[in-house]
Amino acid sequence: MLLCDIGNTFLHFYHKGKIWKEKPYALTKKKEGLPIYYISVNERFERCLLASHSYCINVNEHIELKTQYSGLGVDRKAACRAVDDGVIIDAGSAITIDVMQEGIHLGGYIMPGLESYKKMYADISRVLGRDIEPGVDLTQLPQNTSDAISFGVLKSIILMIKNTSRTKKLYFTGGDGKFFARFFEDAIYDNTLVFKGMQKALQKHI
Hints:
- It comes from Helicobacter japonicus.
- Its main location: cytoplasm.
- By secondary structure, the chain is of the alpha/beta class.
- It folds into two domains: 2-58, Nucleotidyltransferase, domain 5 (2-Layer Sandwich), CATH 3.30.420; 65-113 and 148-203, Nucleotidyltransferase, domain 5 (2-Layer Sandwich).
- The chain has helices spanning 43-52, 74-81, 114-124, 145-165, 177-181, 193-202; strands at 2-6, 11-15, 18-22, 36-40, 56-58, 66-67, 86-91, 94-101, 104-112, 170-173, 188-189.
- The strands form two sheets. Strands 6-9-8-7-10-11 form a six-stranded mixed β-sheet, with helices on both faces. A five-stranded mixed β-sheet has the order 3-2-1-4-5, sandwiched between helices.
- A hairpin with a 2-residue loop joins strand 7 and strand 8.
- The mean pLDDT is 95.
């Protein structure tokens, strides 16, 4: 089974334990006759997949989740389906934090991703257009502008997650998930969460 998660930047594929990403306008040809089961949050990139591969099946409607949250993205639903109890943090272009308890989605929120923070500061002033330094000391008050920006960004994200998680297990995924996971004891980084959720949901329908 070949799975595909169509996001707003890349198409992520999963097949036999292997994960890779491709740009929407440079998709490689997949094995003839192998169906691609996909979810999508980007209609334009979805059309790219359909134009280059004839055997594609949209499974958005099969990714069901018990929740009162209105408008929850299908990628977030899929990641949540993979975890019955815990906090799921998908750290990509945006950072989404969702709370699961006994198979029920209690709610969640969205924060800017690291690159988005960087652009936001640059929009305020060219002087603030600095890279986010992952190695900044978060135990000491910063003494220069570069460290101050990095400190403010990272500390705010980390404290929000800590406040949300309390005693729940943390599950990180996404491009920056591995980086953030190191700030939390016993946190789990799993870049297959979305695909695990897709597989779990599809077991009922395929």
